[in-house]
Design a protein that fits this description.
This protein is of the alpha/beta class. The chain has helices spanning 5-9, 15-35, 41-50, 57-66, 144-158, 172-175, 177-185, 202-214, 224-242, 253-273, and strands spanning 105-114, 119-127, 133-139, 165-168, 189-192. Strands 3-2-1-4-5 form a 5-stranded mixed sheet, sandwiched between helices. A hairpin with a 5-residue loop joins strand 2 and strand 3 (133-139). The chain starts with a helix and ends with a helix.
């Protein structure tokens, strides 16, 4: 018939149907953008695919551009570290260490949160393997009581085996006798980064960046209790259980830990059935 091959495979497209599908997809993406304001198109694509939608990153990127849903990143570091103190400092045990297990390394740091009239301070502890926040505490005072409170919460929720590395900066809150004695009492190996080098605690810095951009900078807090309520929702529910992490293969920290434990049990079962 002297027709090109493409004619045989041609299927007419219903443009109105495609526009309707895009509108439905845009509605869902707007809901996700409100829940996770700093989701880029890759993480947005992964979330939509997890929900059973057949989309690729090109379509998601196009709709996000058309709907002004693309986030604009900004980079900012705030110093909350006082390294001028008489307490001992410890070597960096975390540098170049391949973290492969849960409760192998904990990283800790402090940041500030602005209220309408003053500041409050947040101390948090993160599992370096799963990126899960295992303990946190708020206070109006930047002292060792703040960091000790976060550490006690983390220990009570996880009870890591002796030998877990605790990595922080050299700030007085982490070098104080009250804090280091608590670490030694529970069998932690103490690790500290070099003076004035936030990149040696990059995973903690990444968490604070997410916290600030997706919660703190979007809210005007009036009181310490309001900050505590909002952070409890964001950290314990949104960040730990819902938000997809690209470094974890686009799953949440809670899901990553469940998958890791199931994989470990499978390996142990296989070894018992087929011993070497």
């Amino acid at each position: 018939m002297d027709l090109p091959r493409s004619t045989y495979y041609y299927r007419s497209r219903d443009k109105s149907k495609k526009k309707g599908e895009d509108a439905d997809l845009r509605d869902r993406m707007e809901q996700l953008a409100l829940r996770f304001p700093r989701y880029g198109y890759r993480r947005m694509t992964a979330q939509l695919q997890r929900e059973g939608l057949k989309v690729n990153h090109k379509r998601v990127l196009r709709i996000m551009r058309e709907s002004d849903l693309l986030c604009k990143t900004r980079r900012r570091f705030v110093r909350t570290t006082d390294s001028e103190h008489p307490y001992p400092v410890y070597p960096n045990l975390y540098r170049d260490l391949g973290v492969m297990e849960i409760n192998q390394v904990w990283v800790a740091d402090i940041t500030y949160i602005r209220l309408l009239a003053d500041f409050v301070y947040l101390a948090a502890i993160l599992d370096a393997c799963s990126r899960r926040v295992v303990g946190w505490s708020l206070s109006r005072r930047l002292d060792a009581d703040l960091t000790c409170a976060a550490l006690k919460v983390a220990i009570a929720s996880r009870w890591p085996r002796p030998g877990c590395i605790h990595h922080s900066d050299r700030g007085v809150q982490y070098a104080s006798m009250a804090y280091t004695d608590l670490l030694k009492e529970h069998g932690f190996r103490i690790s500290m980064s070099r003076k004035g080098n936030p990149y040696e605690n990059a995973r903690m810095e990444s968490f604070f960046k997410t916290l600030k951009s997706e919660e703190v900078h979007l809210t005007e807090y009036c009181s310490l209790s309001e900050v505590r309520d909002r952070l409890s929702e964001f950290i314990d529910q949104v960040y730990n259980r819902e938000r997809l992490h690209s470094a974890l293969g686009y799953v949440s920290p809670a899901e990553f830990e469940i998958n890791t434990k199931q994989a470990q049990r499978h390996v142990l079962t296989s070894q018992e059935i087929c011993p070497a």
